[in-house]
Amino acid sequence: MSDAIDLTVMYAMHGALRRELAQLDRVTTAADRDPVRVLATAAGWTLFKQALRAHHAAEDGALWPSLRQNLAGSPKDLALLEVMEAEHAALAPVIQAIDELLTEPGADPLRLGQLTDALTRGLAGHLKHEEDTAFPLIRRTLTAEEWAHFSQVHAQHIGKDAPLLLPWLLDGADKPTMTRLLAQLPAHAYAACAARWIPAYTALDRWSPGTTA
Fold it and tell me: What is the pLDDT of residue 187?
């Protein structure tokens, strides 16, 4: 079934999330900026959370259930899916703790650094684990119809945030990846992305304080 499964969007999303984790590290270790103020007011943190939330919601709602149904006779593979879901669930409290800290007067930058380090370790580890173990399972197990359903659900979760999240996803992608992703868009979305969404995103200094997404 591997010929029917194109994981371009998955690899692109993982690449974009890793790119933003690197930005988080730069923000929280910069000597010339207050990391609390940056994360509290920068569009980059909001976009990162929106993208991660949409991606994981689509996986939890449409990808893992399809795999679980197809793997009913394979306890080892089913256990892997439970681990994938547990790794998703472990990230949510860390993000919540960061957001709560950002609302505190006089929030401690050191504590913020500790939390973002925990987020980076957890998410980076999950992305690699998923690529090494779940991606081969997806290729081996899912039908083209099941993959198309997941792709549709993924697009629905991005939904109204597409004008920013699509350029965000494409940021730094190589030409083959950009071509494949843009080719999947309806004609009107492709035109809007090229004419308005990408220029607006390019002009957004998303990791500067005081920006909005």
Answer: 95
Quote the domain boundaries for residue 171: 2-202
Check whether 4 has a pLDDT greater than 80: no
CA 202 – CA 24 distance, rounded (Å):
19
Q: Is residue 212 part of a domain?
A: no
Taking the C-alpha atoms of residue 48 and residue 161, their distance in angstroms, rounded to an integer, is: 12
Per-residue pLDDT at 82: 96
What amino acid is encoded at 177 in this protein? Answer: T
Determine the Cα–Cα distance for residues 162 and 169; give it in Å rounded to an integer. 10
Per the CB < 8 A criterion, the answer to whether 42 and 211 are in contact is yes
- Average of per-residue pLDDT values in the chain: 94
Both tokens assigned to 54: 């949409």
Confirm if 139 and 7 have CB atoms less than 8 A apart. Answer: yes
**SS3 state of residue 105:** coil
**CB within 8 A of 63, min separation 6: which ones?**
138, 150
Q: For the chain, how many structural domains are there in total?
A: 1
pTM of the complete model? 0.94
| Token pair recorded at residue 7 | 């994981």
Q: How confident is the model at residue 131 (pLDDT cuts 50, 70, 90)?
A: very high
Give the model's pLDDT for residue 3: 56
Owner of token pair 């690899």: 11
